[in-house]
Design goal:
The complex is a heterodimer of chains A (398) and B (449). Chain A has 398 residues and is mainly alpha-helical. Chain A is built from 17 helices and four strands. In chain A, the strands form two sheets. In chain A, strands 1-2 form a two-stranded antiparallel sheet. In chain A, strands 3-4 form a two-stranded antiparallel sheet. Classes of the chains: A mainly alpha (398), B alpha/beta (449).
Chain lengths: 398, 449
Amino acid sequence: MGLNKKDFTLLLIVAILCLFAPFILNPFPEGSALAQFNAGYPDLMQRLVIFGIFAIGFNILFGLTGYLSFGHAAFLGVGSYAAIWMMKLLTMNVIPAIVVSVLVAGVFSLLVGWISLRRSGIYFSILTLAFAQMSYSLAYSVLTPITGGETGLQPKVDDPRILDRVLEISTSQRANLFGLDMNTSHVVRLGDWAFTFNAGYYLAAIVMLVAFYISIRIFRSPFGMMLRAVKSNQQRLNYTGLNSKPYTLAAFVISGMYAGLAGGLLVAMDTQVGAERMFWTASGEVVLMTILGGAGTLIGPVLGAGFIKYMENIVSKINKSILEQWFAFMPDGIEDLLITLVYPFIGKGWHLTLGILFMLVVIFLPGGLVEGGQRVGRLFKRKKPADDKPDGKTTPAE
Amino acid sequence: MSNMKLTRRGLIKTGAVAGATGLALPTYLRADGHAGFLNAPQGSTVTLGFNVPQSGPYADEGADELRAYELAVEHLNGEGDGGMMNTFTSKALQGNGILGKKVEYVTGDTQTKSDAARASAKSMIEKDGAIMITGGSSSGVAVAVQALCQEAGVIFMAGLTHSNDTTGKDKRANGFRHFFNSYMSGAALAPVLQAAYGSDRKAYHLTADYNWGYTTEEAVRTSTEAMGWETVNTVLTPLTQTDFSSYIAPVLQSGADVLVLNHYGGNMVNSLTNAVQFGLRDKQVNGKNFEIVVPLYSRLMAKGAGANVKGIFGSTNWHWSLQDEGSKAFVKSFGTKYGFPPSQAAHTCYVQALLYADAVERAGTFNPCGVVEALEGFEFDGMGNGPTLYRAEDHQCFKDVLVVKGKEEPTSEFDLLEIVEVTPVEQVTYAPDHPQFAGGSLGTCNPGA
């Protein structure tokens, strides 16, 4: 596949993780106190891989060229709107929706990139941020007839859906892949455990693997090398007589298309678009994901995306009555004290927990979660050579 | 135990049999077996999903909604004083949970974003097995979650959502709204405004630039123009605007003598404060006193705007100072538990939870289609709004609407609004195919299986 052994192993690991995610993310039996931490339900699994794609794409721009785009959510949003319109006009099959979302996001990012890339550094970031906020405002109010404004867009019973009507496929308003409903789930019960296998999740996971593979190829290609050169010293690169703009623009468009793909998939899994998807906090979130996981690394952004989405969906749902259940076995005074101490960090306080963890990671692990993994790995590696060092007990001194 | 030999072959055999029995019992989520609908309650409990904004601009409303839901769950399970269950005309609820199953609940944060709200609602449905989703404090979220519940096959009981679209062009068979809407605000306000300010007025609208703003402006404009007012100008203001002085200044030059603020939440607090600071209310235009109108009022907003709300007209769904038995019972049990009176958001959410539970009891099943049937055309009283009808055609509640005015001499921080008129339901009723609501269809109920 054109990969060296190490990259192939990485791809294989990611593939295995994706395949067995329903097991890995559901480690606790149903009904137990820890079941709260189970993340193996379709919606979250889908989000984990889709935002993984988004972060992988962002990392191609930020990790390789060092250009910090603060407006990537706009491409995600544009992709989503393109996808939902395909579903409203053509067919509920997800293929046209996904393909068109990638193309539309590509064209839009070409436009934005062509203008924004005239500047670098903070000016570039501000320009992209301005474009994204502009897109958000347009979608939220000015273009309400096209975007649905605040209420967003959903497929409706009386949408044209030309292809579905002509081919007389079905009149259902569910996203499907040639008749396979994206919501179809198969639940396997093993004792107290329930594992959910969802069609939409596996489609998204396959797309994520392809996206991950392409990203590895870009990282290892001469093109990727050129992007890294831009990051280390763009001025010197320009002085050698090389025009770096086509490279940065290409990277920008590629990462915009990744964002569009993620947007299209979001619609394919959950047929709804709202303008908030393009808000600047959404752009900031992908930056957080990439930095948290490890910018410039292959697997880092995926880990970061998973981490943030997990926090958002799991920690935010713990409420006071659940805390009371957890600490119920303790004496009253201690129970109340613990609840008071923990309460600010759960439920609506999940942002606080995420913020603290983010600070800890940035301060102690500047390379993100990947660096954490490497450190743990090194911890074990260093022990091994220590065992067979010649100056151990086994070797005589003289 | 000499005959219990553990052979390799034996171990493999037992393992295979055990594995096969485990794996041979797959159940399809969609089909969910015997019950015939999604998330049929198993065992002795039933799970409801309370999806409210806990962060973002409407966090205050969200917190109050959650308090109301917790109170409702208490009452449904037979704890506390029973609140409005005692005054509710339907006596199906026994105080032993719903259909004998103890009510449990899960909560989520909508963040007032449709994506986050749907993610949170989906996790309630997919992970926690919630049979009904309720709550929310904005129309965008209500429409998004309503569409999700329709697709998934659970009931959605809308919280605070005032836009016409929720039961208009975006209505769904599985979704129900108790709260009133923009049209009702306009229809209720117009006669009161005519009586107070006359029928020869020139109105200037400042409108929040999103769907709710548009529908409210349209509703108020149509009703006021029908009684002879003239609309001088309508200006859209960005939702994120915090300083409205640049929008207020042109109002004086326009020759208008009434300013209508189609704003909600922080928007309204800021625009009203700006308008009052500009001295609009002390001006004389066309020989008349300049007046300001706020179509949708809430106590939390009145609190934010402080003394500026004095004497300003608006409409509201419910107010804690109402003296009917239902309102008194609700205010009493809410006040006993939390120490202050409930807001209109809390009221509508509490009522929605009770209405759902009651519909399940009357239908005798948790099946969403049964619940839809029980709620459609349901007439009830004793819930604080007088006789109320859940109309079958669009799943909108029809009841009296309150026209309120900022109190001149408030006695406490909660006593900010006084009720000017209770507009009777006939005056705010409209045809299901009214132009402001046209373009949607309910579809059919979806039990999710």
